[in-house]
Amino acid sequence: MGQRVQFTRKGRVYQGVVEEVGRSKVTVAYQVKTGPQRDRTLSLHAALVDPLG
After folding, report:
1. Is 0.90 topped by the overall pTM?
2. Are 42 and 32 in contact (CB under 8 A)?
3. What are the extents of the domains in the chain?
4. Tens digit of each residue's pLDDT, the chain (53 residues)
5. What b/e string do you get for 19-45 counting C-beta neighbours within 10 Å, with b at 16 or more?
6. pLDDT computed for residue 30 by the predictor
7. Nearest partner of 28 among 52, 36, 53, judged by Cα
8. Number of H helices, E strands in the chain
9. Rounded to an integer, what distance in angstroms lies between the CA atom of residue 41 and that of residue 18?
């Protein structure tokens, strides 16, 4: 948890921080550049997330 990662969703690349780790899924907190709700979380399969740095 706390690791910076990047993932692709609908053709766009996002960067975020891992908040929760499950068996095969991770929950990632990230921000979008526009809109009223900029802070978001997403549950993804762990294979779709790449570590940064």
Report:
1. no
2. no
3. 4-51
4. 899 999 999 999 999 999 999 999 999 999 988 888 899 999 999 999 999 98
5. eeeeeeebbbebeeeeeeeeeeeeebe
6. 94
7. 52
8. 0, 5
9. 9
